[in-house]
Amino acid sequence: MARPVQAPDRPTLEGAGGIFSLIATGSAVSRAELLAASGLSRATVTQRLNALLASGLVRETEETLPSGGRPTRVLAINATSGFLLVANVGETHIHLAAMDLTPAILSQTTLPISVASGPDATLKQIGEAFAALAAGAEKTHGFLLGIGLSLPTPVDFKRGCVVGPSVLPGWDEFDIIGRLNVGFSVPVYVENDVNLMTICEHKRRVPTVEDMLFVKVGTGIGSGMIAGGRLFRGAQGAAGDIGHIQFLSDDAPLCRCGKFGCVEARAAGWAIARDLSSRGFRAETARDVLDLVEQRKPEALMLLRAAGRTVGEVISDVVSIINPSLIVVGGTLARGGDLLLSGIRELVYQRCLPLATRNLSIELSTIRDDSALYGAAHLMLDDIFAPTKTGELLARYGAAAASTHPQAPTRATTGT
Amino acid sequence: MARPVQAPDRPTLEGAGGIFSLIATGSAVSRAELLAASGLSRATVTQRLNALLASGLVRETEETLPSGGRPTRVLAINATSGFLLVANVGETHIHLAAMDLTPAILSQTTLPISVASGPDATLKQIGEAFAALAAGAEKTHGFLLGIGLSLPTPVDFKRGCVVGPSVLPGWDEFDIIGRLNVGFSVPVYVENDVNLMTICEHKRRVPTVEDMLFVKVGTGIGSGMIAGGRLFRGAQGAAGDIGHIQFLSDDAPLCRCGKFGCVEARAAGWAIARDLSSRGFRAETARDVLDLVEQRKPEALMLLRAAGRTVGEVISDVVSIINPSLIVVGGTLARGGDLLLSGIRELVYQRCLPLATRNLSIELSTIRDDSALYGAAHLMLDDIFAPTKTGELLARYGAAAASTHPQAPTRATTGT
DNA sequence: CATGTTATGTCTATCTTTATACAAAATGAC
DNA sequence: GTCATTTTGTATAAAGATAGACATAACATG
């Protein structure tokens, strides 16, 4: 009955997933908290934590929290024990980065994109840039743990593909995961950019808020929702698509979607640029509009404020429907200061029932160009470090740790 | 070190919560499925299941599922091992029932309600009626497990109280749970009636649908949402409040909320009744409108169809925002056949992007007057039988079972 | 009625986890 | 410096859970 006993003295990583997940998600920062949060016994927690510390995945920070007695030693995921590759595909450029587990950007590149070149060529470009970034990151940050792709279109997150026609011709239903897995054998996550900005906003600024709405007002208009603390995607991943809600009127302008009176056609960057152009200004994108606003041109200020009221009209509908406790307004036009915001506030407080606005705050985003990248990283880390999934992850690290010993070669345990 | 060993031969219910929950929620119907779903070993499952069977909480049905070999014995919660008390407070009547764990109605009563009498008097009435129902149910159905209250107003489910002014004067912030706990020491659940109808519709008809919308078109208009398989309540429990979304126009009618142009003021039962009255018909409630529709009065038919288009306008907004895969239309006016539905469909398919309507179906509710009661029962059972909560429940049953033996008295292990 | 097939109960040695107690460590308050 | 206080590690016996083999049960099929 001699079974091949494997390294009986080395503590095993098996079963440490729960502990690891608690640390990774920030649910527990100290051993004492781990005890309480995991429900396991002191001895078990100590044993598993030691395995994690030995593997290098978790480290003890220098930071301590005063507690009246012996201070708490703060535990944290070792940010250098792995890295992620993320890419944000925009309409003109692709922003790529390698990120550690903080998450923070380790290195980044920008590629020009020819929208017309289609998914296959574009993903090839991305794959090559990823390979270069990975080569640098691997030297100091161990394994590649996942790949994230941010796209400016509706995405079916579960299947990992674009759904419906969009600004990216040829991407509809294209097998992105399959294409990227050719070069990398790690999980690939694909998500809509506004959803990722929503996650970034939520995770980094107001992680305790349960129900919030993020509205992006840029060249186009879109939104993302956190419902019950989690991103809400809807049946096809099209939830939050508020840009093409219609308000009919006699002068309803034609939208780029082919309908009349959409919110976008009234208040998006391209619509304001259109109106400014007809008044003799030179404007095409949201950026141009913002420039004119910053020059304090009265027409631009007026149109931005009016756009705020239009967006406020839709947002008031959204507030009635999902009853958030926080609305964050971001995107290029949100940098125009409080003009957009005041228009939004005006309509929301006018239209919604007091119950819904009683505890509602409406704020400007702390804008960052790379919020989609951070959002993607958070999304990935949450999934990679989910309690049910840490098993295979730790198996990989365990295998790697073993291979540093003069032992059997390792093999990835993940399927497909 | 002699510790008081308690009945070493009798299997313990401790730890059986997970098993019980799997059976109660229908996640596993046989021993084989329990094995797979729980991840526990065969011996452990057998032991715990035996404890549950011995306690009478779970029973083996006569039903078997063919499997090619020895057929699967189907397990089920013993519907007679406990009961619930539920009450649906309407604007004119209160419908009360004792329900078993199927859930099915065991016995029921109806009380008239004087809206003006306030929460204290009304809850006293309800408490007395509950006591009578409980007396009957206790003879055959063991313990009372929980109390559910359905109210026609926005409710903060977590705190268990009405929020905001409503058709029930004096109920705002009233401590309902505290009041009902005077007579009964079981968990009390308070929820909005439309949310409960949504749960009923979801659980009984389409339990696998992840994202759906239920719209009630009766004397008023409201909606409930299932997002990611769970009821979505929003920050204050006011999610789904679509009745007072405004559509401005020159002839915007005055709403009972004080604003102009609300959906309710255009399409609710009371609004149609108002329009019919001005055309010489005698109508006041949704019921009256339905009568005229069933008499095929052209004016009533026309107005109902127009109402459908108005409701369709809001619903199209909701579809853009939350992207459900199913919309169920219920309420009194939904009994008017396809008239309302066709108006809704017309607008939704006209207004929404193809992506959102591609897999969307819009159906009539299988109407039942008591769907709020059933919804309340499902809501309660899901919570009472949640894996984390079955521990104390089983402790109670264990105590009851022990006290029937001539043994040492048992003591509840739960705190407070 | 024999056979194949799947479901279910039970046994045993082995491994995990727990409870509990005790000891050591690291700080602030005095 | 001493003391109270809280965090953290470890040792021990007892309880709990597992794997995996085996036996039995209950049906469909031919």
UniProtKB/TrEMBL annotation, chains A, B:
Pfam families: ROK (PF00480). Belongs to the ROK (NagC/XylR) family. This is ROK family protein. It comes from Sinorhizobium medicae.
